[in-house]
Design brief:
3 strands; 70% helix; Alpha-lytic protease prodomain-like; 12% strand; mainly alpha; single chain; 3-stranded mixed sheet
Length: 293
């Protein structure tokens, strides 16, 4: 289900953003609006992001094999990082163009076509945003999240473009370049955040504290466990492998201690959806050991 939902999100994203890119670029060039051209290039970046979502989703859904024992889940974060980098590059170019449009005093000619394009963009993006938000809630997929954030940003940024166009009718021209700068900075910030989130997972960032506390609570339910030792988490795509050491009575039969480990593994995987596998190391609990701590 996760693969199919993400695939649909990417396809709808590509279709919607190609449509917006074409009409915004055409009207932007005709009217000479830096803000509208900036907005159109943002839509071009959105097309790329949606394509990366489709490709990343396709690769990450490939099951594990002999060369990739834990599957291809991290592809989701590699492609999310690429989306973040593309957003930063586009933002830098737009920032440069918008800045010099203010210095050179480029004047935007008011046009009702620009107003109409803004409304079309806002309506289209609102629909895409709520669609991707619902999909993200279902899948917790970072690729979908990046698209969702992008759609949300576009709604507000196009509103700023709309304000700039309206102000031109009152001979206030500099706002067009300022809006272009705001759009650029917003895109850049979103790209940096997405890059960091992807980078953290690729660098094996530990599971969040809330999930860790929940897992430890599940382990402590078993009264035979005297102490919890090392706790490690390894991200594999959007899920984790947990490696934990537990201490039990040193006189306990081996088969009984392994039964406890099996119960812990089953309970954690059942109660914490983001856990793919649990590896439990069993150590004997001795009072002398505690004295030396």
């Amino acid at each position: 289900m996760r693969y199919d939902v993400t695939k649909k999100v990417s396809i709808f994203g590509i279709m919607g953003n190609v449509f917006l890119f074409i009409i915004k670029m055409m009207i932007g060039i005709i009217s000479g609006s830096k803000a509208m051209i900036a907005d159109s290039l943002n839509s071009a970046g959105d097309v790329f992001a949606s394509f990366m979502t489709w490709l990343g989703n396709k690769i990450s859904s490939v099951p594990n094999d002999e060369d990739h024992n834990y599957g291809h889940g991290k592809a989701e974060y590699i492609f999310s990082m690429l989306i973040g980098i593309s957003m930063i590059i586009i933002a830098v170019k737009l920032l440069y163009d918008s800045f010099f449009s203010i210095i050179n005093g480029n004047k935007l000619v008011f046009s009702w076509k620009l107003i109409i394009i803004c409304f079309i963009t806002i309506v289209t993006k609102i629909m895409l945003y709520f669609y991707t938000k619902n999909a993200y809630i279902k899948t917790n997929n970072l690729l979908i999240k990046s698209n969702m954030i992008d759609h949300r940003n576009d709604i507000f940024l196009t509103m700023l473009t709309l304000i700039a166009i309206i102000l031109v009718n009152f001979n206030i021209y500099f706002v067009d370049g300022i809006v272009g700068i705001i759009i650029s900075l917003w895109i850049m910030l979103s790209g940096i955040r997405l890059f960091k989130e992807s980078y953290d997972v690729l660098m094996d960032q530990a599971i969040d504290n809330e999930a860790k506390k929940k897992i430890i609570k599940i382990i402590k339910k078993n009264k035979e466990i005297k102490r919890i030792g090392n706790f490690y988490s390894i991200p594999i795509g959007y899920k984790y492998i947990i490696v934990v050491t537990i201490f039990v009575n040193g006189q306990m039969l081996t088969k009984n201690s392994h039964k406890i480990a099996d119960i812990i593994e089953e309970d954690i995987i059942k109660e914490v959806p983001i856990i793919e596998n649990v590896i439990v190391h069993i150590e004997p609990f001795e009072k002398d050991f505690l004295k030396n701590m």
